[in-house]
């Protein structure tokens, strides 16, 4: 079986993982709990997080996961958790459990509070070895295959000290006493770096090891340069900079390649030996290479962000000019915070003397407006084809200059989406010139501005109003009361409903079949507000019907009240009406 545990302070990332927001499992549901008032995974983790704030330790929560190789019965799960709680003195501690089903097999997570009444926390010394002992006992009890761990001899000694000689002997018979300690090919940090950069560290290690054995240092540097890698001198010793710009210690790459080659006595090059290997070569300093890379990135960023400098109202331009280091990612790209900005679109007209878009009834141009990194693509198929000409590009630039003079602001989501398009196209080696990307600005404005924008000249001009609610961060959403959340949810539903009606009108004018309202919501499902609207569509539709009925009843009551007031006024000012009514009564 596979088991593990980590200490932490809880919070947003923990409950997102336990409730499986990334949908990595087939099913997720809440399990048992103890000592908690709240119900459900999210609320219980929030309660445990709040409890941990009173602890003197920075990590008062203990997250445990158990993944057996086969399905366990309820009695087997109970025996496992009893052993676990007895080992770590958790029998009276509050906990919350989450049950995940993946590939038809069940595994469980538990989050324990380590806080004691005194304010201190339970000690979890040597928890790795103690967890291995519990897992080996569970494997013996359930008949699973014995899994070698990193502390096999310590586990056997602990079982013998506790008087469980039969279990200890079974582990000895399985060969755990003589087996070598298993070692991971990569450390967790190295594995995360490899997943982030898509650079095979093992392959790079083999390349460095082979070059180190065959060539002299000067020739090794030339060979690595052929693979866009270079060697520099770091703070402690020589380092290898790969194609993505990440840094690897030279001696660690040599040792990793030697271990992977299967030698009985792999190399163990130290940092001092690595410095001696390059002692006669004046290696460039890594700090200088890093500065050159930053300067080069700034030059590229300045060229790519010429659009933002032309627009004084652009949030990107404002933040870039301030140079706030907290807003810049490691790759030099600006990240924008959620802010309920408004967008103003005025005097959207074709420049005089410009070359208009060439259209045709038998052509269709599909323009993608979704974020490529999320795999979400919102396609608006328009009955025209754009002919990219220098005159058309000059026309776009002229209109942008005119927009600057008229104080016309870019909305944050439109410009951010445009930059993401360019970034991910470059990442996929499908780069596109920034001038060509400017041609998509008009469609972005139509889709993301809060006002009506008329698309350029077509055989049948179409006016669209895709007014979408401003995004709300998860932290802001969780700080709202239930009444505030319900009100915001309903108002957002009304906005999305109005946008969907305009979307249907657009497709009706083009004789195309629109997507359903639920799928229309999923196309914009990036923030918590849109996700909540999508999950509660049926409830919001019923509430909308009730709201319409109440609105109609209020209008009818108002009309009836106005009629009664008018009749009363007529009665007071016309006695003939009253006498006429008396005659009718007789």
Measure the end-to-end span. 96 Å
Instruction: Characterize the largest beta sheet: strand count, sense, and whether it forms a barrel.
Output: 5 strands, antiparallel
Overall, the morphology is extended
Low-confidence stretches: 303-389, 406-418, 428-439, 442-468
**Structural class by helix and strand composition:** alpha+beta
Whole-number count of domains: 4
Number of strands: 12
Strand order of the largest sheet: 1-3-5-4-2
Mean pLDDT comes to: 70
Share of residues in strands:
5-15%
Number of helices: 24
Using only C-alpha atoms, the radius of gyration works out to 34 Å
Summarize the structure.
50% of the residues lie in helices and 11% in strands. It has 586 residues and is an alpha+beta fold. Helix 23 crosses helix 24 (575-585).
Describe the overall structure.
- By secondary structure, the chain is an alpha+beta fold.
- The protein has four domains: 2-147, BirA Bifunctional Protein, domain 2 (2-Layer Sandwich), CATH 3.30.930; 188-284, no CATH class; 305-467, no CATH class; 538-585.
- 50% of the residues lie in helices and 11% in strands.
- The chain contains 24 helices and twelve strands.
- It has helices at residues 12-18, 41-52, 74-88, 127-142, 152-161, 165-173, 188-197, 201-214, 217-225, 250-260, 271-277, 286-304, 306-310, 315-322, 390-405, 412-427, 434-437, 441-448, 474-479, 482-509, 517-522, 528-535, 537-573, 575-585; strands at residues 2-8, 27-34, 61-67, 95-102, 105-113, 230-233, 238-241, 247-249, 365-368, 379-382, 453-454, 463-464.
- The strands form four sheets. A five-stranded antiparallel beta sheet has the order 1-3-5-4-2, sandwiched between helices.
- A hairpin with a 4-residue loop joins strand 6 and strand 7 (238-241).
- The chain is extended, with a radius of gyration of 34 Å.
- Residues 291-304 have a biased composition (Basic and acidic residues).
- Residues 305-322 have a biased composition (Polar residues).
- Residues 291-357 are annotated as: Disordered.
